[in-house]
Automatic annotation (TrEMBL):
Name of the protein in question: Uncharacterized protein
GO molecular function annotations of the record: spermidine transmembrane transporter activity
Domain of life of the organism encoding this protein: Eukaryota
Keyword flag Transport: yes
Gene Ontology cellular component list: plasma membrane
Positions of transmembrane segments: 6-26, 47-69, 75-96, 117-135, 155-174, 186-208, 228-250, 262-287, 307-330, 342-360, 366-388, 395-416, 436-456
Cellular localization per UniProt: Membrane
Membrane topology: Multi-pass membrane protein
Amino acid sequence: MLASGVTYGVMIATLVAVAAYAIIVSRRMEIDSVKNFVSAKNSTTSLRLAWCFFSAGMGSWTLFSFPAIGVDAGSWGVIGYTMSGVCGMMVLAVVGPFTRSALGENVTMTDVVAQRFGYIMQVYISFISVFYQFISLASELTCVAQLTTMLSPNAHSLIPILVVVFLTNLYLLIGGLRASLATDVWQGIGVIALLAVVCIAMCFHVSIPDGAWSRTNVAAFTVEGFETLVTLVIAVTASNLFFTGFWQRVYAAYDDHTLRKAAFMACGIIIPFTVALALAGMVSYLAYPDGDLFFAILIDMGHGWEVLIVIVIAMLASGVSDSIQIGIAAELTTCFPQLSLLHARIIVALLNAPAIVIGYQQYDILNLFLIADLLCTGAVGPMLLGVWKRATRTGALAGSAAGLITIFICGVIAQGKFVGGFNWFILPEGLYSQNSMITFIVTLVIPPVVTVIVSLMTPKRIDETEDSYLLENSPIHSSKD
C-alpha cells in the first residue's frame, strides 16, 4: 500500500498537469459568452472526439462497477454492461446528425426538445438530465474517496475530493467546454495505461487455484445474469442519453461523418475496457476471495504500479467531473436564457458543495440512481422522437406521462397494493430482478408507442410546417482527419 503523502502528491501533480494543459489549450479562443463557455460546435475531429466520448462517460466509478458486475452477474452481466456502452454510442451516431441539423444556434439536446415540443417538455427533460448528472457527480466523488483510501488506508477521504474539485474547477471556470474537451484525449490514454496494468497483473502476478473457475461458476451464463443484461442495456443506455456531456460532444463534431466515425471508434475503446475490468474482477475474486475486487490483483505488484493507478484515478475523476459540471451548466443556462456567463461559472462552482458533502459522507445513493434510471427510461423515447417530423407536442407530453404511469402500475402489480406504485420508483428489488427487468422493458416501450399514437391523432398546429423542424441531415463538410 502507498503512504498517504505519496498518494496526495501524485494526485495533485497529475491534476495540476491536466489543469495547466487544459488552460493553455482553451485560451486559444476567448470565452466571452455563455455559448462559447458551454459549446464547441463543429470543432473536433473524429479521433479526438472518440476519446472525448469515452473519457466523458468512464469515471473512477468503473473501477468498482465493472469488476463487481463480472462477479455478481457472470458473463451475461459483462456482455450487458458492454452492450449498454456500445448501444449509447450507436444511438448518438444515428440520431445525432438529425439533432445537429435541428440545433441551429442553440447548445444542447434540450434546445431541440424545446423547439419541437415546447418549454414544458424542455423543463421536464432538463430536470431529469440535471438530476441524473448531479447524482453521477456525487457518486464520482464518493468513488474517488473510496479508491484513495483503498490504496492508502491512512489517507483522509476529504482531501482527494477537494483536490479533484478544486483543480477541475480551476481549468473549467477558465476554459469551459473547450477545456474539458482538451483533457479528454490524455485521460483516455491514461485509461489505456490502466488496461495494460490490469493485463500484466492478470497474466504474470496472479495465481488462480486449480479448478476455481468451474467450482465457483463465476463466469457462468445464468438466468439471473441474462435478466441483468436486459436491465443494464436499457437502464444504462437510456441514462447515458440524458448525459449532456455526450450531446455537447455530438455537436462538437466537425461534421456528421466525423460524428459517426467517432462513435464507432469509441465503441472500439469501450469494449476492451469494459471486458478487461470485468475479467479482472473475476480473477481477483478467484485469487483473493476476501480482497477488494480489482485492487486485490495488485497486491503482489510494486509501488510503481500503484502510483500509476493513482494517476489513472485522478484522470478518470477529472474527466467525468468536468463533463458533468459543464453539462449541468449548459442545461440550466438553456432553460433560463437570461443567465449570463458569470452565472454559468457560478453554477459550475456551486454545484460541487452538495456533491462534496455526499461524497465525503459516502452516502448510499443507489436509490437515487434507480429513480434517475427509471425516469430516463420513461422519457427517452418521447425525447428521441423529436427527430420524427410527425411527432407533436401533445404526443410527447402524453408519452412522458405514460412513462410515469407505467412505472406506477408496475409497482402496484408487483407489490399488490396501491402504495407499491410509489415505492416502485426506487426499485425496492434492485436492478437485478425479474420484476425490475420487466419494468424497464415496458417503461421503454410504452411511452414512445403512446407518443406515436397521440401524435397521429393530434392535428398539426398551424405553425408546425415541414420546414419548421429542419430535421434533414446537416451539410457534410470535408473532414480533416
